[in-house]
Amino acid sequence: MGSMGKMVMRFLQKRSLATLPSQMIEKGQNRVVEASLTLIRERAKLKAELVQALGGSIATTCLLGVPLGHNSSFLQGPAFAPPRIREAIWCGSTNSATEKGKELKDSRVLSDAGDVPIQEMRDCGIEDERLMKTVSDSVKIVMEEPPLRPLVLGGDHSISYPVVKAVTDHLGGPVDILHLDAHPDIYDAFEGNKYSHASSFARIMEGGHARRLLQVGIRSITKEGREQGKRFGVEQYEMHSFSKDRDFLENLKLGEGVKGVYISIDVDCLDPAFAPGVSHLEPGGLSFRGVMNLVQNLQGDIVAADVVEFNPQRDTVDGMTAMVAAKLVRELTSKMSKLAH
């Protein structure tokens, strides 16, 4: 269905809801939200019990999909990314071992709580304020089942705000954030939308959820982006000067004195030669190995992470970007999961 068709369907759905009593709509929405959270809760509990029964895990990476794309300023294809990433992880074209030798088929290394049913909630007329709260609640549910730690599959970058908020609320304090992206995503309210994927880090910083925010890979930034960066004390590392910053960035030590480290990877941090399946093609980005050097060499306790903005609708080269996104997830999993020796 084209964008016009989707707009018409959304209009008709809203008109249909408008003819119902508000109390009836509210009760229905409450049931859908509770059912959504129950689904995540039961899956996370089951997976955590399995890991605990196996024993020996200090931290187990748990996938959580958030298929949300409507806060994108250009294309909404990232909503279709989570199942494509999972398919690429397990497609069989490569083995299940990570570069550091961890085995993804080991349930103590990688688990999966499924997807937050975003579209089902939107079809019931649930607006962004509550939608974002439900995403936060879903992340908290995963974190309430030790030793699970959430690795969230986007979706557009608007999901990072409710995810980071959930992480810091649960842990009781701010984190240090390593944000890899072509864009700083720090507009106050892009095109009037405070939940825009281009505004997620403004919400994170004004909420006090990060002590330090390091943004790496930036090569499309406006005057407002730089001003907002200065306002919030963001450490912005642009690609035009990456060569002089490389040694520092490839030997980061983060998280001391706070609740840990959060990593957010927008797939468009990579040069389009490595990842053409994104909504915003920005030449001059990081190489895949460059991203791996940043992530694998980082010293710190990674408490949660996300991989966002993969757009399957633009992944025209035999699913190449799906494999890239999957590889990012695989290696983040290796970094986050900890087994007792």
TrEMBL record:
The residues the record assigns to binding Mn(2+) are 157, 181, 183, 185, 266, 268
Q: Cite the EC number.
A: 3.5.3.1
GO biological processes: putrescine biosynthetic process from arginine, via agmatine
Q: What class of enzyme is it?
A: hydrolase
Q: What is the UniProt remark on how the cofactor binds and its stoichiometry?
A: Binds 2 manganese ions per subunit.
Q: Which GO terms describe its molecular function?
A: agmatinase activity; arginase activity; metal ion binding
Q: Which pathway does this chain act in?
A: Nitrogen metabolism; urea cycle; L-ornithine and urea from L-arginine: step 1/1
What Pfam families does the annotation carry?
A: Arginase (PF00491)
Q: What keywords sit in the KW lines?
A: Arginine metabolism, Hydrolase, Manganese, Metal-binding
Cofactor requirement? Mn(2+)
Domain of life per record: Eukaryota
The record lists the catalysed reaction(s) as: L-arginine + H2O = urea + L-ornithine
Instruction: Write out the similarity annotation.
Output: Belongs to the arginase family. Agmatinase subfamily.
Protein name (database record): arginase
Protein species of origin = Pinus taeda (Loblolly pine)
